[in-house]
Design goal:
By secondary structure, the protein is mainly alpha-helical. It has two domains: 4-151, Ribonuclease III domain (Ribonuclease iii, N-terminal Endonuclease Domain, Chain A), CATH 1.10.1520.10; 157-226, Double Stranded RNA Binding Domain. Helices cover 56% and strands 9% of the residues. The chain is built from eleven helices and three strands, in the order H-H-H-H-H-H-H-H-H-H-E-E-E-H. A hairpin with a 6-residue loop joins strand 1 (176-183) and strand 2. The chain is flat, with a radius of gyration of 21 Å. The N and C termini lie far apart (44 Å).
Length: 235
């Protein structure tokens, strides 16, 4: 019966198109910090840098007319936690991540942060195992088809940014965000925020699991009032 290392190696060949020469690198890339000291955090650090470089290269060639600002936002969209976690789920990566008992009990195999970090660590392991070209090939395989689905620059800008730009373009004062209430325990809070437009005093509410999320929702409501039919929520 194959052991975990053999199963992970077979997974890498099947889903990544890559065979590790040093399978201990893959084993470490798939080990969460909750499972021991020899975990994937250092490989994640390497993988993050490699991923940033290769996605920049992909976007440079894939969006030849885009300026630096849009390219930066597009790269952030490609390498964000949610995108990488979705790719990892499609690869069945979670089944091969080694977790400590606490993470196992709380469903860590499906947590976005764990999946995204493990995928970055695997990319770092490939880079250390064979260099940039094989890592580039794997990243193209994983992310290349997502390029066509990326939004345009207008949709990439978050609601707070778009609201600020809308007001600045008209010479109006910037919005003010006021936290109305914070409820819940420290690890599970709920924020209620109001976005006030100083020019006319109108106020728009927003709520979310973080202050930023609540502010974005309030900004979205303000934009919907100012520019009806032209607001695309960030997420």
């Amino acid at each position: 019966m194959p052991d975990d290392r053999q199963l992970a190696g077979g997974w890498a060949v099947t889903h990544l198109g890559y065979r590790f020469r040093d399978e201990s690198l893959l084993e470490r890339a798939l080990t969460h910090r909750s499972a021991g000291a020899a975990n994937n955090e250092r490989l994640e650090f390497v993988g993050d840098a490699v991923l940033g470089l290769v996605t920049a290269e992909l976007l440079f060639h894939g969006r030849p007319a885009a300026a630096e600002g849009p390219l930066t936002r597009l790269r952030a969209r490609l390498v964000r936690k949610e995108t990488l976690a979705g790719v990892a789920r499609g690869l069945g990566l979670g089944a091969h991540v080694r977790l400590g008992s606490g993470e196992l009990r709380t469903g860590g195999h499906q947590r976005d942060s764990i999946l995204a970090n493990a995928l970055e660590a695997v990319i770092g392991a490939i880079f250390l195992d064979a260099g940039l070209d094989p890592a580039r090939t794997v990243i193209h395989r994983l992310l290349g088809n997502l390029l066509d689905g990326l939004p345009d620059d207008q949709d990439l800008r978050d609601p707070k940014t778009r609201l600020q730009e809308h007001l600045q373009a008209r010479g109006l004062p910037l919005p003010e965000y006021v936290v109305g209430s914070v409820a819940g325990a420290a690890h599970d809070q709920w924020f209620e925020v109001t976005c006030r437009l100083p020019a006319d005093g109108r106020m728009f509410p927003g709520a979310g699991a973080s202050r930023r999320a609540a502010e974005q929702e309030a900004a979205t409501a303000a934009l919907a009032a100012l520019v009806p039919g032209q607001v695309t929520p960030d997420e």
